[in-house]
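Hi, here's the filled form for the chain we discussed.

Project: internal
Contact: R.S.
Residues: 139
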Amino acid sequence: MRLRLDSYPIVDSEKVRYADLDSNAHVNNLALESMHENARALMNRHLIPDIYDIVARRLRLVTSQNAVHFLAEVHWPAVVQTGAGVGRIGRTSFVASTGLFVDGTCVGVCDTVLVLLDDNGPTPLPDNNRAAMQALMLG
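And the returned structure, exactly as it came back:
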Protein backbone atom coordinates (compact mmCIF):
# COMPACT_ATOMS: atom_id res chain seq x y z
CA MET A 1 0.00 0.00 0.00
CA ARG A 2 2.67 2.56 1.00
CA LEU A 3 4.50 1.82 -2.24
CA ARG A 4 1.69 3.29 -4.38
CA LEU A 5 1.29 7.03 -4.83
CA ASP A 6 -2.50 6.74 -4.87
CA SER A 7 -2.47 5.59 -1.24
CA TYR A 8 -1.43 9.10 -0.12
CA PRO A 9 -4.12 11.78 0.30
CA ILE A 10 -1.75 14.70 -0.40
CA VAL A 11 0.40 14.64 -3.54
CA ASP A 12 2.89 17.20 -4.82
CA SER A 13 6.01 17.17 -6.99
CA GLU A 14 9.56 18.50 -6.85
CA LYS A 15 12.25 18.79 -9.49
CA VAL A 16 15.59 17.20 -8.69
CA ARG A 17 18.35 19.80 -8.85
CA TYR A 18 21.83 19.12 -10.18
CA ALA A 19 23.11 20.35 -6.79
CA ASP A 20 21.29 17.40 -5.16
CA LEU A 21 23.73 14.88 -6.66
CA ASP A 22 26.50 13.08 -4.82
CA SER A 23 29.85 12.07 -6.31
CA ASN A 24 28.24 8.93 -7.80
CA ALA A 25 25.64 11.01 -9.71
CA HIS A 26 22.84 9.81 -7.41
CA VAL A 27 20.50 12.17 -5.61
CA ASN A 28 22.00 12.21 -2.12
CA ASN A 29 20.18 11.08 1.00
CA LEU A 30 19.91 14.59 2.46
CA ALA A 31 18.19 15.88 -0.68
CA LEU A 32 15.72 13.00 -0.53
CA GLU A 33 15.06 13.60 3.18
CA SER A 34 14.46 17.26 2.36
CA MET A 35 11.72 16.16 -0.05
CA HIS A 36 10.12 14.05 2.70
CA GLU A 37 10.36 17.07 5.01
CA ASN A 38 8.66 19.36 2.50
CA ALA A 39 5.86 16.82 1.97
CA ARG A 40 5.36 16.69 5.77
CA ALA A 41 5.30 20.48 6.01
CA LEU A 42 2.65 20.75 3.30
CA MET A 43 0.52 18.22 5.14
CA ASN A 44 1.06 19.90 8.50
CA ARG A 45 -0.35 23.14 7.08
CA HIS A 46 -3.54 21.23 6.17
CA LEU A 47 -3.75 19.72 9.65
CA ILE A 48 -2.87 22.78 11.77
CA PRO A 49 -3.15 25.83 9.48
CA ASP A 50 -1.14 28.30 11.60
CA ILE A 51 1.54 25.83 12.72
CA TYR A 52 4.33 27.69 10.90
CA ASP A 53 3.11 31.22 11.72
CA ILE A 54 5.48 32.14 14.55
CA VAL A 55 3.38 35.17 15.51
CA ALA A 56 -0.11 33.60 15.56
CA ARG A 57 0.60 30.06 16.64
CA ARG A 58 0.10 28.87 20.18
CA LEU A 59 1.08 25.29 19.41
CA ARG A 60 4.12 23.85 17.66
CA LEU A 61 5.26 20.51 16.29
CA VAL A 62 8.58 18.89 17.09
CA THR A 63 10.08 15.73 15.66
CA SER A 64 10.41 12.88 18.14
CA GLN A 65 11.52 10.16 15.73
CA ASN A 66 12.32 9.96 12.02
CA ALA A 67 12.77 6.71 10.08
CA VAL A 68 13.71 6.91 6.40
CA HIS A 69 13.92 3.92 4.06
CA PHE A 70 15.72 4.40 0.74
CA LEU A 71 14.30 1.91 -1.76
CA ALA A 72 15.89 2.89 -5.09
CA GLU A 73 18.43 5.28 -6.56
CA VAL A 74 17.28 8.59 -8.01
CA HIS A 75 19.17 10.28 -10.83
CA TRP A 76 19.13 13.75 -12.36
CA PRO A 77 17.16 15.02 -14.20
CA ALA A 78 13.95 13.79 -12.60
CA VAL A 79 10.69 14.91 -11.12
CA VAL A 80 9.90 13.33 -7.77
CA GLN A 81 6.26 13.02 -6.79
CA THR A 82 5.72 13.22 -3.06
CA GLY A 83 2.87 11.66 -1.16
CA ALA A 84 1.88 12.42 2.42
CA GLY A 85 -0.67 11.09 4.86
CA VAL A 86 -1.19 10.31 8.52
CA GLY A 87 0.01 6.86 9.56
CA ARG A 88 -1.14 6.87 13.19
CA ILE A 89 -2.75 9.24 15.68
CA GLY A 90 -1.82 9.23 19.35
CA ARG A 91 -2.83 11.40 22.31
CA THR A 92 -0.21 14.16 21.85
CA SER A 93 1.47 12.98 18.66
CA PHE A 94 0.91 11.56 15.21
CA VAL A 95 2.95 9.82 12.54
CA ALA A 96 3.47 11.71 9.30
CA SER A 97 3.99 9.08 6.60
CA THR A 98 5.51 10.14 3.29
CA GLY A 99 6.60 8.48 0.08
CA LEU A 100 8.74 9.56 -2.86
CA PHE A 101 8.03 8.34 -6.40
CA VAL A 102 9.83 8.61 -9.74
CA ASP A 103 7.95 7.47 -12.85
CA GLY A 104 5.48 5.60 -10.64
CA THR A 105 8.16 3.69 -8.71
CA CYS A 106 8.47 4.23 -4.97
CA VAL A 107 12.05 5.28 -4.24
CA GLY A 108 11.67 5.95 -0.52
CA VAL A 109 9.32 6.09 2.45
CA CYS A 110 9.57 7.93 5.74
CA ASP A 111 7.68 7.86 9.03
CA THR A 112 8.11 10.81 11.36
CA VAL A 113 6.61 11.01 14.84
CA LEU A 114 5.54 14.61 15.45
CA VAL A 115 4.62 15.77 18.95
CA LEU A 116 2.32 18.73 19.56
CA LEU A 117 3.65 21.16 22.19
CA ASP A 118 2.38 24.21 24.00
CA ASP A 119 4.41 26.33 26.43
CA ASN A 120 4.20 23.59 29.08
CA GLY A 121 5.30 20.65 26.93
CA PRO A 122 3.38 17.92 25.08
CA THR A 123 -0.32 18.71 24.82
CA PRO A 124 -3.29 16.63 23.61
CA LEU A 125 -4.25 16.98 19.97
CA PRO A 126 -7.33 19.25 19.74
CA ASP A 127 -10.49 17.58 18.43
CA ASN A 128 -10.61 19.70 15.26
CA ASN A 129 -6.99 18.84 14.39
CA ARG A 130 -7.60 15.18 15.22
CA ALA A 131 -10.56 15.19 12.80
CA ALA A 132 -8.36 16.71 10.08
CA MET A 133 -5.76 13.99 10.74
CA GLN A 134 -8.36 11.23 10.51
CA ALA A 135 -9.39 12.60 7.11
CA LEU A 136 -5.78 12.21 5.89
CA MET A 137 -5.14 8.71 7.25
CA LEU A 138 -3.43 6.28 4.91
CA GLY A 139 -5.94 3.76 3.58
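Let me know if anything looks off before we file it.
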